[in-house]
Amino acid sequence: MSPDADIAYWIVAASMIVLLAPLASGILSALIPVRYSWLVSLTASFMLLVAVAGAVVLVSNAGLHDTRHFSTAWFTLGGNEIAAGILVDKYAAVMVLVVTIVSFLVHLYSAGYMAGDASIRRYFVMLGFFTFTMLGIVLSDNLLILFMCWELVGFSSYMLIGHWMELPEAAQASRKAYMMNRIGDLGFIAGLMIVYRKAGTFDISILASHSLQGWETTAALCFFLAIAAKSAQFPLLTWLPDAMAGPTPVSALIHAATMVAAGVFLLGRIHFMFPPEALQVVTAAGLLTALTGAAAALGHFDIKKILAYSTVSQLGLMVTALGMGAKDAAMLHLLTHAFFKAGLFLAAGAIIHTLHQVQVSTGKTYDVQDIRNLGGLRKAMPVTFVVFVLCGAALSGIPMFSGFQSKEAILSHMLSGQGEWSLIAAFLFLLTAFLTIVYTFRLIWFVFIANEGRQWGNIPEVPFVMRFPMIVLGLASLWWIVSLNPFSFSGWFMTGRATGSATMISIAVVITALATSFLFVRKKPTPTGAPGILTNTFYLDNVFGALVTRPVGHLSSLCVRIDRRYIDGILHGAAYAQVTLAHIVGWIDKTIVDGIVNFVARLASWLGAFVRTFQSGNIQMYIFWAGMGLLLLTLYIVT
Amino acid sequence: MIPIENYLVLSATLFSIGLMIVVIKRNAIAVLLGLELMLNAANINLVAFNLAHPERLDGQMFAVFVIIVAACEAAVGLAIILQAYRVFHTAVPDSISTLKES
After folding, report:
1. A617 CB near a chain B CB, below 8 Å?
2. Can you give A203-255 as a three-state secondary structure string?
3. Measuring CA to CA, which residue among A171, A314, A341 is closest to residue A252?
4. pLDDT reported for residue A404
């Protein structure tokens, strides 16, 4: 074999392993008998480790500089052949690595977090399936398979968010997530139809060289609708905070690697299809999302909700960056965000997990996710604290942490752009970054540092199987994940130089924000909220309620009324008519048909009775009748 | 000469009376009497029609035959009635109903 064919062989094989190992993990989890449920977490984690190994092989063979495309005929429709295959470029390779690693860590963490859960098998089945579908999105080379995986990701997230389906809010949240994604899927299908009609192929690498003949903007906006729904962009962002009703490791997976990253990844994958006008829409939506999310995170009290809104905000930043053409920077932020956000969620999960156990043992009940009930956990849970601070610092974009570098990359791109549009974007970006620092500081302060006097008693740290993924993710939030130079984003992933002003402005913003937030929270025993318009993201849910839910409700009640009145009326009328007809027919049958039959029978019996009277057995009567008969005969003959 | 219609009326009257007796009377002997009356009505007819052909005696011969047959019939009939009376202690035919159901 030639070296090239050798590499191709390895890439395809590794891709198959990466794809199939999570699927196998899911299937295996389903096959293991209920009695050995505890085994599930071991096998699932092991299979994901295999997937990580596959991803490493894949990346080491594919490299980061070439785009490799393997495809094979899938099916033929009329004269059109639809191909299926894998497309590995730099972004896909990195994404595969991130997804498998985060998913593996989440699997490991879940082994501790979900231990003893009644339906742990279903949990791991869906977790494996979720990972598999996300990897399908990442590796697929055509939009059709990507769309299938896209749908399956939506379905898996529905199952996982609603894992504790006995809780009404979990069931509600899963439905909401699913419905919002359906809205986006509508856009995806419309986009697919446009693409196939105009370009005649679904293959992404072929599409790059095809023109859509005037339909570029429409197609791009259709796809952006799908991306907005999946990545929780304005205005379809409200499902993501609600999705916190699911188990915390699932939140970590959704927010870091699988669900919301899919939208950003797709936006990067088909970035070439977006004309400038569409990109302006993308940028505007991204900026609006980033600000809305950050403002909402500032006012909430639920630790998971704050993190969820922070994800919304960070996704907005990525989408903004993509909208402004900074594909590398956006993907870099996606990468760093995956690690530090997963770390934050796992740490939050550790707090929730531990305090739940404390609640069970002490018999107290309070909302463990509400930061007003927390505080002073620094001493009690030192490992969690350190991980949370590391990841939180990365989220805030503090120098020496990965978030700083990726945000710097985005900011540099914005500042190097021309026109006031990029300056406005850069300003809003910095505002978001400022708010990010404030809400992160507020979160860490009120969860770990404030109220030190609060007596937590002897709280145990979470078990090692949960601590290990947290520590790994905490370390992955440091600068070396991007580049060895903590002030430069130019490393293995992307090259470029930060504009000097970007670094300076970033550091200035960080310092101001830290000082502001410290002064803001210093004397306060409990956190304060924000106005409802911010925490409710401009009452988007109510807007949806008024614009969509209520009209749909009205429509359905109208349909019900029409159904009741007219359709049921017709049906009932038909039924009544039939019954009436049946009655008439019955009457005719009884009276006329039976009447004739009975009449004939009665006539026969009457005739018989009459005739019988002649045969009385009296001989003299016979003679009399014979005589009469003779007389009649004689009369007949004579006359 | 007496017209033949008178004979025929007499014969018919006698026949009717005989028939009436046969139909009405309950006693078998009376019925036999009625029968004799009817036979004799026929005899009157036979003899009366013989008037049309005085040179031949066919009608009268027939009448004699009828009388003979009637005598035989009366003898047999009376014998039967007598035997029936012995067995059933009645001469009323309606009461003799052993062949009838119930």
Report:
1. yes
2. EHHHHCCCCCCCCHHHHHHHHHHHHHHHCCCCCCCCHHHHHHHCCHHHHHHHH
3. A341
4. 82
Q: Is residue B17 part of a domain?
A: yes
| Residue in B closest to A620 by C-alpha | B23
Number of domains chain B is built from: 1
pLDDT per residue as tens digits for the range A517-530: 777 777 666 666 66
B22 touches chain A (CB under 8 A): yes
- The domain of A592 spans 546-631
* pTM of model > 0.90: no
* A1, pLDDT greater than 70: no
pLDDT digits (tens, 9 = 90+) for B70-96: 999 999 999 999 998 998 888 887 777
Which chain A residues touch B31 with a CB distance below 8 Å?
A: 620
Mean pLDDT across A351-364: 79
Domain region containing B90: 4-95
For A14, A402, B11, B32, B90, the CA distances from B86, given in Å and listed in that order, are: 131, 146, 36, 18, 8
Residues in chain A: 639
pLDDT at residue B17 is higher than 90: yes
Beta bridge partners of A73: A83
Inter-chain CB proximity B94 and A623 less than 8 Å: no
Tokens of A483: 């580049």
Same domain, A415 and A559: no
> Is the minimum CB–CB distance between A627 and chain B shorter than 8 Å?
yes
